[in-house]
Hints:
Elements: H1 26-61, H2 70-73, H3 102-106, E1 131-140, H4 148-151, E2 158-161, H5 168-177, E3 181-188, H6 207-221, E4 226-231, H7 233-236, H8 239-252, E5 255-258, H9 267-274, E6 279-280, E7 283-284, H10 291-308, E8 310-316, H11 322-335, E9 338-340, H12 343-349
Amino acid sequence: MRPRAAKKTISARTPVKGKRRKKLKPGDKLRIVLIAAILTAAVSACFLTVVFFHSAQSRNQSPDSAYERPDQAYEQPDEVPASQASPAEIVSPDTTPAEPSPSALSALPAQPVFSAQPAPPVQPALPISRGTLVFVIDDAGHNLRDLEPFLEINEPFTIAVLPGLAYSAEAARRIRAAGKEVFLHQPMEAVGGSNPGPCAILSGMGKDEIVSIVSRNLDEIGPVSGINNHEGSRITMDAETMEILLELCRERGILFLDSRTSSETAASMVARKMGMIIGERDVFVDNVQERESIIGYINAGLLKAEQKGSAIMIGHVWSPLLASLLAELFPDLREQGYTFTPAGTLINGIKL
C-alpha cells in the first residue's frame, strides 16, 4: 500500500489559489489619499457653483426683491412743488422704495433718470456802480509833447486849452481828433496878482471888454463844450463879472466849470440866481508831484464819487507822472465799478 500523502493545512498566511492580493506599498497609499481629496474638492466646487447660480437667477427673476433697478430706485417725482424743487430726488440707501406699477415701469425713460444733466450757464453778476469820475486836464497849449500821452489814453475825459499860445489851436484840434472833449481854459486874475497869461479877464474890465476877450478865445480854441477858469481867484469872487461870463456861456450854448481856486467863489451863487447849472471841481490831483500823493488825491476823489455819485478831478498836462499813472489806474478803476465821462456830459446831467 502506498503511504497517504500528508494533508495540507491552510493557514492565514497561506494564500488561496486564484485569490492572491497584491501587497500595497507605502507610496501607493499616499497617492490614493491625495486623489480622494482632489475628487472631494471638485465635487464641492461643483455643488457651490450650482447653488450660487440658482440663487442669483432667483434674485433677478423675483418681483418682490428688496433690491430694485437703478432706474426705479432713483426715479424723479412727476411733479414737485416750487418751494421744494430740486435737480433730482435720490432715495436714501436705508429706505426700500415702493414697488412701481407696471404702467410706471413702461413709462421709464431709456436712460436712467439720475444721469447728470448739464447745468445752465451761470449769468455773470452785473457790475456794481460806485460812481462817475470826471478828469479834466488843464493847461494844454504850451507844447504838443506833454499833450500826446494823454491823447493815447482810451477813456473819455476833458482837456482844457489855454488861449493865445503857440500851440493852442493845434492842441485843440488834436484833442478833438482823439475823441476827447475840449474846454477853453480861460485865464483870470488871481488874488496874489500873478500874471495869469495872455487873453485874461482882469479886474476892472467892463462887460464889452470881457465879452470881446472871451469870444475871441472861443473862436481860437473852438468848438468847445465849455469854459473853466485858469487861476481866477479874484475874478470868481466878483459876482458881477461872473454874471457877465455866465450870460455869455448861455448865449453861446456852452457850459461853465468852476475850478474853485477860491473857497469864496461866487460862481455857484450867481448860477443859481440865473437858473443855470454849472460844474464844480472836487479835487486837484497833482498839487504835489509825487506818485503816492497823486494816488492819495485820486482816492479822495473816489470817496467823493461814492458819497455823492460823481467827482470832478483836475490835473495838469505838464505833470510828468499824471498821464502814465492815469493809464495804469483807469482799467482797475473801471473794473472796480467806476465809470468815466467828460465834464460836459456830467454837467448837462445835473438837475437844478
